Amino acid sequence: LTLESELRRALAKNELLLHYQPQINIATGRIVGFEALVRWQHPERGLVAPGEFIPFAEDSGLIVPIGEWALKEACRQNKQWQDAGLEVVPVSVNLSIRQFMQHQLCARIGRTLRETGLDPGLLELEITESCTMDIDYASDLLHELKKLGVKISIDDFGTGYSSLSYLKKFPIDKLKIDRSFVRDIMTDPNDAAIVASIIAMTRHLNMEVIAEGVETEEQLRFLHDNQCHLIQGFYLSPPLAVPDAEHLMKLYS
Ligand code: G
Ligand code: G
Ligand code: NA
After folding, report:
1. Stretch (H or E) spanning 69
2. 20 neighbors 35 (Cβ within 8 angstroms)
3. Residues 108-139 pLDDT 10s
4. Most C-beta atoms within 10 A of its C-beta, which of 14, 50, 145, 234?
5. Atom of ligand 2 nearest to the CA of 214
6. For the EAL domain, which residue ranges apply (predicted)?
7. How far is residue 113's CA from residue 88's CA, in Å, rounded to a whole number?
8. Is 61 helix (H, G, I), strand (E, B) or coil?
9. What is the residue-wise DSSP string for 143-201?
10. C-alpha distances in angstroms, 147 versus 21, 83, 106?
């Protein structure tokens, strides 16, 4: 069986699932969001990480139906958590550039929000800088998405090669500092300077900022000292299966 036919089967047979990585405000100690990350429960190979199939899904175009499934499942799960009386915590979902370029993306997302009943303010869409290359297309689409009431964040910020001018033209709510900068923050003065500058820039642009890939207490302290209070990373928690995410929400509420 080729990977393509296996992945198609996985979608049809409901073998994909989402794990949720908490995002914490270290100033308040509260969960401020969950990032939904896809996994594949393979009948023979067990739980397959996205690194092993997302790049292929991107190349083959299967990322579009997979991404649509992930968006709908994340919205459905979040609404179910609310209905069960758990703490109300926004969910963020990754949008690949293929989805971003897809016909009627905004209408599709609007329909998913209506079908699942999720408050649009609780959905955050993570796009990458690659989505900002066609400035006019991206500007129109992002403004259209904002009218739905969703939040927009830029993922892996600092690793793309697009112009910074989009930051003032687009309705962006949040930057996610790429984990490659956070990794060496304590040993590489250039990375420390880049991270401090990104944080300062978001403050001047009235955006939120979150650091990804935080793995140590020292990194957390550096970020806190530099006024970046939103943190995601293994130091706090890996992506969690649904029961573990629920357990965490109960602890925090
Ligand atoms: O969870 P993990 O770190 O193994 O994920 C590896 C990569 O797969 C991450 O960079 C993440 O952005 C990507 N990924 C995970 N879930 C999704 C998804 O639903 N859609 C898209 N486009 N990418 C995803
Ligand atoms: O780029 P994106 O935001 O999609 O990346 C999310 C991925 O990063 C997830 O697949 C998750 O497993 C991984 N990840 C999350 N926290 C950490 C961390 O602290 N260190 C490393 N190396 N990877 C992380
Ligand atoms: Na992401």
Report:
1. helix 63-83
2. yes
3. 999 999 999 999 999 999 999 999 999 999 99
4. 145
5. 19
6. 1-253
7. 16
8. coil
9. HHHHHHT-EEEEEEETSS-S-TTHHHHS---EEEE-HHHHHTTTT-HHHHHHHHHHHHH
10. 27, 25, 10
pLDDT tens, position by position, 151-172: 999 999 999 888 888 998 999 9
Contacts of 51 (CB under 8 A, 6+ apart): none
How many angstroms is it from 233 CA to the middle of ligand 2?
7
| AA identity, residue 154 | I
Predicted-complex ipTM score: 0.94
Asked if residue 113 lies in contact with residue 72, where contact means CB atoms within 8 angstroms, the answer is no
SS3 15: coil
- Report the residue among 17, 19, 21 best suited for mutation to probe ligand 2: largest number of ligand atoms under 8 A from its CB: 21
Closest ligand to C-alpha of residue 233 is: 2
39 in contact with ligand 2, CB cutoff 6 A: no
Whether 141 contacts 106, CB under 8 Å: yes
Taking each helix axis from N to C end, the angle separating 63-83 and 242-252, rounded to the nearest 10 degrees, works out to 40
